[in-house]
């Protein structure tokens, strides 16, 4: 097999179809995965991209060639795959490229119980075996069993958040032609006091309406307009594999994922007094403040699901949230599920007569820049230049847990991180008001882009 370094990332596999990822490569990765994770079986699911069924079947062939059985779940969201891995206690593989354009596909893999796999904990070994060729298995091949997990997934989520007693709500959901169109009807449209207004529920991996990436404000414009047009109480937008969920209020205004993190944290702390809540270092400082105010213990971590999940395991945390709208729950095998976060928001809204904008205002304390990307020739050099400029300032606090974070005495702070996959520096700024955000953002960007 050719060098696979280009498609093996820090936490998953991602490539262009068929240039860097095809059925043969997927089959080799499946065989290597079976060797590395072991166990009696592997659960496999895939999204709606045109290439996904073939890649998933080829991966299953690779697994069974090593004498390991496959539970083939077919169409599913990534959090449905995590449900399958958790409830069946099997390693899993999800075929998706998440929010990436149609020409991409990839594999998100986990150990039994939805435990993460990263380059340090098995992904590098899977790559090595796939490249070198997995030794032939001396014994019978494994079997493939088809199993629909959707109903079980929906039932499980509904045991974690009870929506049956909430007031009637009108909810606009933009699935972006992704897997939310498959999972939302099963979870939210069955006997609940919710009027779901669907946008782009048709499964179509060519994304004919807009990219399934709600982190880009351009991709939630249709949702915002539909919320205003229909007088809805809330809008939800899912990414391509429906493991992330973005929220807009009744005015169509985007609600910060940090505010959602704080809101959900308060709900979980009410059930689990004194529990630990994880937040990554780009999350608003309002999150640890609110966690402490509600008797919880905030723990700060690096960006990335493997770090969040590992820290949750170490600390026994009840919940974790990221600025990118990934939300992790101890009750969901410490895995991320946008659907469960959405259900928490719906429950809060449905048990409060106030509109969502008033409720979330309690959790939004600071102004922020959002993520600002700069293409640079030498990311390390530019980051060092920024560090040199700020490190000596009176009262400045510098840490390098993940990239460069600088906190200033006026309450402003910024984080500057290099992308893992592109020649980019990513800047996030937070401050007490918009003017301070703008000033600090412009000062840092002037150095980065000089």
How would you concisely characterize the structure shown here?
The protein has 450 residues and is an alpha/beta fold.
Biggest sheet: strands, sense, closure? 7 strands, mixed
Distance between the termini: 42 Å
User: pLDDT average, as an integer?
Assistant: 95
Which segments are poorly predicted (pLDDT under 50) over 5 or more consecutive residues?
none
H/I helix tally = 14
* Rg from Cα: 22 Å
Strand content: 15-25%
Report the helical percentage: 25-40%
Structural class by sheet pairing and helices: alpha/beta
Write down the oligomeric state: single chain
- Give the overall shape: globular
How many E-type strands?
Answer: 23
What does this structure look like?
The chain has 450 residues and is α/β, with parallel strands linked by helices. It has 14 helices and 23 strands. The chain has helices at 23-37, 52-64, 78-88, 123-132, 150-160, 180-188, 221-230, 257-271, 286-293, 305-315, 338-350, 356-361, 379-391, 434-448; strands spanning 13-16, 41-46, 69-75, 92-95, 104-111, 115-116, 144-146, 169-174, 194-199, 234-238, 245-248, 254-255, 276-280, 297-301, 319-321, 327-329, 335-336, 367-368, 372-375, 397-399, 404-407, 413-418, 424-431. The strands form four sheets. Strands 1, 2, 3, 4, 5, 6 and 7 form a seven-stranded mixed β-sheet that branches. A hairpin with a 6-residue loop joins strand 10 (234-238) and strand 11. Helix 1 crosses helix 2, helix 1 (23-37) crosses helix 4 (123-132) and helix 8 crosses helix 11 (338-350). The longest helix is centred in the N-terminal third of the chain and has 15 residues, at 23-37.
């Amino acid at each position: 097999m050719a060098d696979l370094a280009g498609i093996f990332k820090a936490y998953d596999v991602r490539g262009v179809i068929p240039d860097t990822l095809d059925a043969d490569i997927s089959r080799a990765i499946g065989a290597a995965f079976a060797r590395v994770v072991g166990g009696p079986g592997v659960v496999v699911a895939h999204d709606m991209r045109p290439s996904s069924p073939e890649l998933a079947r080829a991966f299953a062939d690779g697994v069974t060639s090593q004498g390991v059985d496959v539970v083939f779940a077919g169409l599913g969201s990534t959090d449905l795959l995590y449900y399958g891995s958790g409830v069946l206690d099997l390693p899993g593989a999800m075929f998706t490229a998440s929010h990436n354009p149609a020409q991409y596909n990839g594999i998100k893999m986990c150990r039994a119980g939805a435990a993460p796999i990263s380059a340090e904990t098995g992904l590098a070994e899977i790559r090595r075996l796939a490249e070198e060729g997995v030794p032939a298995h001396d014994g019978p091949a494994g079997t493939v069993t088809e199993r629909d997990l959707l109903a079980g997934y929906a039932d499980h989520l509904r045991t974690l958040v009870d929506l049956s007693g909430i007031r009637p709500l009108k909810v606009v959901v933009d699935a972006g032609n992704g897997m939310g169109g498959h999972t939302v009807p099963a979870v939210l449209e069955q006997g609940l006091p919710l009027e779901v207004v669907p946008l782009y529920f048709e499964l179509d991996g060519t994304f004919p309406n807009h990219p399934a990436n709600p982190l880009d404000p351009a991709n939630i414009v249709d949702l915002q307009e539909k919320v205003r047009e229909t007088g809805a109480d809330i809008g939800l937008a899912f990414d391509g594999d429906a493991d992330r969920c973005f929220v807009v209020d009744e005015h169509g205004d985007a609600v910060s994922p940090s505010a959602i993190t704080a809101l959900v944290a308060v709900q979980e702390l009410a059930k689990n007094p004194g529990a630990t809540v994880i937040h990554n270092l780009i999350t608003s400082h309002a999150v640890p403040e609110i966690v402490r105010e509600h008797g919880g213990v905030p723990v700060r971590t690096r960006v990335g699901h493997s770090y969040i999940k590992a820290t949750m395991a170490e600390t026994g945390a009840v919940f974790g949230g990221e600025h990118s709208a990934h939300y992790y729950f101890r009750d969901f095998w410490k895995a991320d599920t946008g659907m469960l976060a959405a259900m928490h928001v719906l429950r809060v809204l449905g048990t409060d007569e106030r509109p969502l904008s008033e409720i979330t205002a309690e959790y939004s304390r600071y102004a922020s820049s959002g993520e600002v990307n700069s293409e640079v020739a030498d990311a390390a050099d530019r980051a060092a230049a920024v560090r040199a400029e700020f490190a000596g300032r009176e009262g400045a606090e510098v840490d390098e847990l993940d990239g460069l974070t600088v906190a200033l005495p006026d309450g402003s702070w910024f984080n500057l991180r290099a992308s893992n996959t592109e020649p980019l520096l990513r800047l996030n700024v937070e401050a007490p008001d918009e003017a301070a955000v703008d000033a600090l953002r412009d000062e840092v960007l002037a150095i980065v882009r000089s």
